[in-house]
Known about the structure:
Helices cover 78% and strands 6% of the residues. The chain is mainly α. The chain has a two-stranded antiparallel sheet. The longest helix is centred in the first third of the chain and has 32 residues, at 8-39.
Amino acid sequence: xxxxxxxxxxxxxxxxxxxxxxxxxxxxxxxxxxxxxxxxxxxxxxxxxxxxxxxxxxxxxxxxxxxxxxxxxxxxxxxxxxxxxxxxxxxxxxxxxxxxxxxxxxxxxxxxxxxxxxxxxxxxxxxxxxx
Length: 131
């Protein structure tokens, strides 16, 4: 049965995107903790600082292969530093994380398509020859 896989360059790009998705999940968790702290009227400055420190790291990891996603991440980081109310900042962060996740998933799909290599080894043919 012929299968599809990616070449070496595609594997490197997919690994980069997979690592970015893991870091984005961590950032999303911090954003949700920030929203909970805001609702409970607890101090939120530590969450904002942590998010603003994590987003540039995520952008730097993607800059080599995925510059447009990196620019999107930096725009979300910039939006969090603008002087808005805390509720608006949480909404912007949630929307930004969703946009980044969607961009990463689209990048994964495009990378799989662009770097696809068809596996020509067919295991059923070799089994039929031996019978």
